[in-house]
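Chapter summary example: a protein plus protoporphyrin IX containing FE.
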Amino acid sequence: MIKFQKNKGFTILFIIIHTIHLFSVFIYGGFLFVDILFLSKMRQTLSEDEYTKAREAIMMHVRKVVPYSLMVAVASGLYMITHVFGEIGPDGMSTFQILLSIKAFFASWLGIRGINQKLFKINPWLFKSHFFPFSLVVLIILLSQFMYI
Ligand code: HEM
């Protein structure tokens, strides 16, 4: 994490927002991992009818939490980026700035899609399964680590 020259109160606020970002990412990304790794496998042992019922019993709770945690992840990310992006130097963007920009692009894409679907019931970029958002989350997490190089 960036070391701030600003006052202690600001540093504490940033740490809190960063932690909120991580927890909301755990909830959103965690569900996608569980879905891809385990829930999709329920089909192997349940009949189609049982699978539909079991999945709905889980999804009714997922819908109340997971889309909002994505929104919190995006909102906290947007707050942090305004403080850590920094000036673009004469030699162009740093690795951190480039990778953070790419990450923010994909994450905003997920966020806009999530907000459209949840709040406005618009689903312009339909995903047939959760594999595509899952792949984006894996990419975003990798970018979030390699941007510190
Ligand atoms: C527009 C949306 C987003 C923006 C602008 C954003 C921005 C940021 C920023 C600025 C940091 C680093 C702060 C620092 O330590 O200096 C960060 C950390 C991180 N972000 Fe995001 N983020 C967004 C959404 C997401 C999403 C959707 C995910 C994953 C699903 C994610 C995963 C992470 C992870 C794993 C870190 C932790 C890096 C670490 O401390 O090891 N972010 N994000």
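Key point: The helical segments are 8-37, 48-84, 95-119, 131-146.
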